Amino acid sequence: MEIFRLAKASEIYNISTKNLTELLQLKLIPHIKKISTSNRASYYIPSAFVDYAKEVLNFETLEDATGKVEDFYNKNGTKIITFSNLKGGVGKTSVASNFAYSLAVLNKRVLLVDMDSQANTSRYFANQYFTGKSIKNIFDTLMRKEKIDNAFVHSHIHRLEFDNASLDLLPSELALGRVVEFSRAVFTMPHKKLNDILKYVKDDYDFIVIDTPPSTGLSLHMAIYASDIMSIVTDAEDFSVNGLKELASEIEEIEEETDRSITVDSIFINKVKNSKIHEVYIEAIAKLAIEQNIDNVFTISDSTRIKEAQNLHIPMLEYKSELDKGLVMSSSVMEYAIEKALEG
Ligand SMILES: Nc1ncnc2c1ncn2[C@@H]1O[C@H](COP(=O)(O)OP(=O)(O)O)[C@@H](O)[C@H]1O
Ligand SMILES: [Mg+2]
Fold first, then answer.
1. Ligand 2 centroid vs 11 CA: distance in angstroms?
2. What residues are neighbours of ligand 2 (ion), with CB under 5 Å?
3. What topology is assigned to 79-343 in CATH?
C-alpha cells in the first residue's frame, strides 16, 4: 500500500497543499494525522483512502472534491459484523478493535461491542475497568423485566476519542459471562437478547462490530443472532484448521437453532511467520475457505508492533512505528474495512 506525506501527495495528485489540507481537514479524504512535539501536524495519506473518498463522494480529481458535502453514511442501513473463533489468543480482539477503528477513520459511525467477559477490547481502547457500567448492567435490567430504550442503552456507551477518529464502545466486564449464562433461566429466547439491546441504538450507527469470547456458548449465539456478517480470526498453527471446521459446524448448528443465517465472508490468518510450516497451514486454510464459500482470506504477520500499540492503548493506524513502516501490519484490516465501507 502506498502512503504519502502531505507534500508528496500534493505532487502526486496535482493539487496545492493548501487545497489538499482543506480536504483533509474536512475529512473528505480520510487520512492519518500525527501531531509532533512541535505541535505541527503531519498528514499521512494512504492512496487507498483517496480512492475510497473518490468512490464514495463520486469525484474524479481532488480539485472536484472541493465544495463536496460530507456524506459517508451507509445507504443500506446498519451492518453488524461479528469477529469470532472458538480459540483464544489468535487476535480476535486485535482485529475487531482495529477494524472498528478503521471504519471510523473512513467516516463511518461505529459501535464496538465487547461480548467477552475478559473485557480485553474494552481495556485495549479505553484502558479502564467498566465494573457496573457495562453491557452486563443492561442484561441485568432486562432480566428484571424492566423496559429499556435508546437513552438507557446510550448511557452505557462510552465515546473513544483518538487523534484521527472517534468511535463508541459498549464495554464488558468480568461478570458478563455469568449473567449471560444465567439469562437462559430467565428468557424463553435468550439468544435474541443482544439483538434486542442493539436494536435500540442500531439507527445511530453505520456499523456495529462485535468481539466474542473464545468459546461456544450463549454469548456467541447472541452475537451470531444479532449479526449480518461474520469474520473468523485464526492463527496458522496446528489444530487451527480443525478448529475452523468445528467453528463452521458450530455456526451451522446455531443457525438452525436460532433460525437465522449469517454470512461468513472473511478469514484473517494472524501471527503469520515466514516459515514453511505456516505456508502449509495457510494453504490448508485457504482451501477450506474456498470449500466454505468464504470470499476473503487475509494474512497478518506476527509483529511486536501490534502488542506495542496495544500497550499504548492506541489503534495500529495511529502507532508511529506502524506509520513509519508504511502501515504494513494494518493493511489487511484496512482493506477489509474499505471493502465493507464501500458495500455500506
Ligand atoms: N499479528 C500479531 N503479532 C504479534 N502479536 C499479536 C498479533 N496479533 C495479536 N497479537 C497479540 O496476541 C495476544 C492475543 O491477541 P488478542 O487479540 O487478545 O486475541 P484473542 O482476542 O483472540 O484472544 C495479544 O497480546 C496481542 O497483542
Ligand atoms: Mg479477545
1. 42
2. 92-93, 120
3. Rossmann fold (3.40.50)
